[in-house]
């Protein structure tokens, strides 16, 4: 009897302490400026709008509330940082690199790959994959980038005469094919291409489901989300996403198995001059050494495929928009390209990438550099929000 009483007493103290802690955090958070929030539902209703309006709404908040903005929905709290000094403080310290919140919504798809993992898992994977990020790796991908750009331009030519064309899907499928052929060493056979369109549709669905979860407070909770229409759609989409990446991994494994001692025989295909392996080969190599599991490989392939093709597609779409919007920019860009590249037959985008790669320092201050740099500023946000879960206190400037 006395032990039951002790358990009840201890549980009550723990609950009270937890309650006190929550209240304390809540009290402190409510001191931060932000749009009016209501008990429990917080700012949920602020998020109840189409994504394009939400995007504009979030970008206007700092004009009303300054550099530090608090928002919450039920027990999900967020503080938006807008001051460069505060952002620098977070990004430059290893103390603040925990991924929670929205990143958890990506886990059914990306598992615990580099983008969504934390702590020792992130460190181990990052160390393992660092050679795949080396700048020199890009050079051997140039041929593929040029070929795919030629194909992209043919698709664009077919659109000539149409009153309107959404260029983004065309660019997306190009950057996805480039990512597959380069970092994954995929052959882009008809079989792979046939599942690729399903993969692209599935990405749209998962992207939409993540946005919907942010905008509708009840979908933040797993059981409600799983029962919802978008939750069921996401489940089906995940199967298409993983089918595609599994095909890519299996195809590459088969290829590597089919060539004996592939390092000696096919050095050009799988590694660059310094012996750096392409990303997927690096992972397969590490699986043999017991440093990563089959599941782990899929997590990283899913992560790289998404992180690699989506960002570059957004960057190129913005770049084309900047060039297309201004006839003077077009003329100056064309002129600059004739000066900086010797590849006369090269297509515009490939030439831009090549020029950036080869002449990064000589381009400093040039018009082309300015166009490229301006396209990568917050005016054209490629990654709109970076989320960090604070596990330690952070002192902000204002
Ligand atoms: C214009 C092009 C790109 C932009 C603007 C961009 C931007 C970013 C940003 C902002 C992050 C941090 C995301 C976060 O923590 O929430 C990130 C992470 C990452 N990106 Fe990119 N990226 C680009 C291209 C690529 C490419 C081409 C690849 C691979 C082929 C790639 C692979 C990754 C990976 C694996 C991570 C996670 C890294 C980690 O947490 O250690 N990215 N990228």
From TrEMBL:
Keyword field contains Amino-acid biosynthesis: no
InterPro entries registered for this protein in UniProt: Cyt_P450, Cyt_P450_sf, Cytochrome_P450_Monoox
Pfam families: p450
Coarse class of the protein's main subcellular location: endoplasmic reticulum
Membrane-crossing residue ranges in chain numbering: 6-22
Entry keyword Acyltransferase: no
Cofactor: heme
Source taxon at top rank: Eukaryota
Membrane topology: Peripheral membrane protein
Entry keyword set: Endoplasmic reticulum, Heme, Iron, Membrane, Metal-binding, Microsome, Monooxygenase, Oxidoreductase, Transmembrane, Transmembrane helix
Compartments it resides in: Endoplasmic reticulum membrane; Microsome membrane
Protein family per UniProt: Belongs to the cytochrome P450 family.
Function field: May be involved in the metabolism of insect hormones and in the breakdown of synthetic insecticides.
Protein name per UniProt: Cytochrome P450 4C1-like isoform X2
Biological source species: Bicyclus anynana
Gene: LOC112047466
